[in-house]
């Protein structure tokens, strides 16, 4: 005898007790965390509200954003040149670019910032002239390498090493046959790169570049060790005076989270734009 026909429309989803249990555990943990945040007076939420829009805090936030944009722009430009050098057929240039990437990726950014800030110890004066020849101009290093200069220099050189690898990986991800097909259609080398290679490479380049931008924003907090008035340094100046450490750190966390959230939304939109046709 044949079994009776089963109507798929009458099927019911299986009961998954482990999922219900995990959901209940997460709900309890979320409720406990909310209760802890609301009922613990040591968070001092009124203090957080008072300092959230403090002019010094906003000025520090602006400096963090400025450092991020400047270092990312300069680092990306230098990273593109390094990636081109590493892909070059000229072996000495490729080797030099590879050494740069290895060195500046291997040294922590905090160490680099402190090193550039103290460059005057190794090089008392910065000179402009002919190597091993006459000097045309000279300036005291401490007058040139300020906190701002050291911050931009350290973050840019560190970021360039990572961007070089991101750009190089994106270009290598494009199949060589794409270039050959573009040439066969009569495209010049520049047209084939701009219209064929680059749009495909951007699908690989954009996601890690967005992550690097966000990481760089958070990494600007390191410049506080060289007395650069970023967001964290502005918070530290206030809580060193008022001894309200936790609420001021919550203010810094709130602004970092807000900016990173906005940047993450922009990153996802860029990924969708360059990912058209891939999904």
Automatic annotation (TrEMBL):
Subcellular location: Cell membrane
Broad class of the protein's primary localization: membrane
One Pfam family named in its UniProt record: BPD_transp_1
Membrane topology value: Multi-pass membrane protein
Superkingdom to which the source organism belongs: Bacteria
Keywords: Amino-acid transport, Cell membrane, Membrane, Transmembrane, Transmembrane helix, Transport
InterPro entries per UniProt: AA_ABC_transptr_permease_3TM, ArtM/GltK/GlnP/TcyL/YhdX-like, MetI-like, MetI-like_sf
Database matches in Gene3D superfamilies: MetI-like
One of the record's GO cellular component terms: ATP-binding cassette (ABC) transporter complex
Any GO BP annotation: amino acid transport
Transmembrane domains' residue ranges: 20-38, 58-81, 93-117, 137-158, 221-239, 245-266
GO molecular function: transmembrane transporter activity
Classification via PANTHER family: L-CYSTINE TRANSPORT SYSTEM PERMEASE PROTEIN TCYL (PTHR30614:SF0), MEMBRANE COMPONENT OF AMINO ACID ABC TRANSPORTER (PTHR30614)
Family, as annotated: Belongs to the binding-protein-dependent transport system permease family.
Protein name, per record: ABC transporter permease subunit
Annotated organism of origin: Nonomuraea phyllanthi
Phylogenetic placement of the source organism: Bacteria, Bacillati, Actinomycetota, Actinomycetes, Streptosporangiales
